[in-house]
Write a structure and sequence with these properties.
Blueprint (H helix, E strand, L loop, with lengths): L1 E2 L1 H13 L8 H4 L2 H8 L1 H12 L5 H8 L3 E2 L3 H4 L1 E10 L5 E3 L3 E7 L4 E5 L4 E9 L5 E9 L22 E10 L2 E7 L7 E7 L1
Antiparallel strand pairs: 1-2, 3-4, 3-5, 3-11, 5-6, 6-7, 7-8, 8-9, 9-10, 10-11
Helix pairs in contact: 1-3
Amino acid sequence: MRVRMGKTLPLIAAALLTTTAAEAGWQDQVSRYDASRLAKLEEAKSQALSEAAAGPDMGTIHGVLDLQAVSLSEGALRGSWRCRTIKLGGMTPDVVYSWFRCRIRENGEGLYFEKVSGSQRVSGQLYPNESGGYVLLGALTVNDEKPHAYSGNGASVGAAATPDDAVGLLEGTSARSARIEFPYPVQESTFDVIELKR
């Protein structure tokens, strides 16, 4: 089933601020700051596309972001993926990184995402979302640094968020592709997306 993000944004925003029996868990862990970031996903994307327009990679960027979202089962998501990060806006118009390795696995609490190669990595728990995708509550690491847990409501005293926290929305884009969108990252860019392919 194909789902257009523009039409489901109100559902995402509502899911970020209310807890349902089916999705109890991540709403209890996400900080108010990160809930706000996720609810502004379309706003961040629009701003970032405007900033990236001066760069050389708009064809690649639109090739990832313009794909309609499709629902993927947990079984379809599990396993190894080729992945690359694209950063839009902020310090530079855009940066398209090389392909690396990612995987999605069960960890006893549900699905867990991890980028397992490359110098900049991210990992975290995936939670089903009413849009048909998954909310990622994760953290950034460098090289072979031990993965961090998402700090959420335990963020540093006096700070709205820690620099390591990464929150995003994972959606399928075909039977063999997906993306994770990160609105308003704490550092460097306005919007990040990890493209996943098999």
